[in-house]
Amino acid sequence: MRILLFLSLCGGFFTSAQKVTVINSMTQEPVSFATISFLNGKGTFADGDGVFTLSRKRYPDVDSLYITALGFEDLKIATNDVTPLLSMKPATSRMDAIIVFAQLEGPYKEKEIEAIVHDNYFDCWLPTVESEIAVRMDRQDEQITAIKSILIPVKVEESQSSKKGKLRAFSTMFRIQFYSVSDDGSPVQQSTYPSQTFVITEKTNDIYELNVEELNIQIPENGLFAAIQVLGFTYPDGRLIDAKKYREIQTRRGIEKVSTTYRPLLPFTDKIEGKQTWVRRVFFNNKTWQPFDLTYNPNSKLVRSGHDNYGMGAVLKVYPSTD
After folding, report:
1. Following DSSP, what letter does each residue of 202-221 receive, concatenated?
2. Which end of the chain is more exposed for a tag (fewer CB within 10 A), N or C?
């Protein structure tokens, strides 16, 4: 009888929506904003407290989870084995690879790489949680260069204006992460610099300035990628809303899952030479980075019109050479 009751409780755990918390196995602290992939091309994120919701009703075709977070070993677990508390082991093997830069001191000059914005709705990227956009940043004049702030161009869709001319309210959480540059010029290993979250609303200016000075980010000789990714909408107090990340649409081929797009839009530009922008879909194709060109999507209107770079800017601190 006890066994039947236990099985019944276990079965009830995943037939109804349940909160799952991801924690550090050593410190018992939450793993904030861990990536939760369902291995079916869809996924979600834990919130700042390491919590996400798992539901058979919402995700009926999910049989396993793949959880990743910077500084931790990847965790793969069958949904039948999911418990309210999941532990991730710190990736001690990566600790040896951490490069610690000394705090820069002395005189420096500020240099701004201007962010590029425009008002054309059709030349913008519609963000989804499955996509990540990385922009390469290089040292200035081959001198030691640190990043003081990231300048993020955004655009609120015209279609989101109410009939009275007022913008409809929204609040979207983004995450910025940093990646090293591989020999072929692509983003490769996620940097040990901490990721940082920020929230954009309908009141945000065309360029959002994210101060990262306290992270002491120094651009290596071969460059660094800064990448942004949508985590989802938030409550007024800034907490991430646990909402469905895709819509189900009935088609002739049956029900298809379409990723939800999030406000604001991200304006792409044709004013930048070269390929500075790389993209990837974090729940598809083994998270492979691709240059944003026709090899990524030959039907992309952005690429075909020459709007193949995201106009991210930065305020840099450039330290003169002492040689």
Report:
1. TT--SEEEEE-GGG--B--T
2. C
Block residue for tokens 């959002």: 208
Give the predicted TM-score (pTM) of the model. Answer: 0.87
Nearest Cα to Cα of residue 231 among 43, 86, 85, 95: 43
How far is the C-alpha of 153 from the C-alpha of 117, rounded, in Å?
6
Strands 85-88 vs 18-24: parallel, antiparallel or unpaired = parallel
287: Cβ contacts below 8 Å, ≥ 6 apart: 280, 281
Q: Which of 4-8, 56-60, 166-170 has the highest mean pLDDT?
A: 166-170
Band of pLDDT at residue 1, cut at 50, 70 and 90: very low
Best CA proximity match to 235, nearest among 244, 223, 243 = 243
- Could you list the beta-strand ranges (E) of 2-108: 18-24, 35-37, 43-45, 51-54, 64-68, 75-78, 85-88
Apex 49 CA angle, 47 and 55, nearest 5: 55
Whole-number average pLDDT of the chain: 87
Q: 37-71 pLDDT, tens per residue? A: 986 678 899 999 999 998 877 777 788 999 999 88
Residues 316, 157, 120, 128, Cα dihedral to 10°: 60
The tokens of 244 are what? 């469905």
Tell me what the mean pLDDT of segment 86-115 comes to. Answer: 78
Instruction: Report the DSSP beta bridge partners of residue 258.
Output: 247
Closest CA to 273 of 116, 145, 139, 147: 116
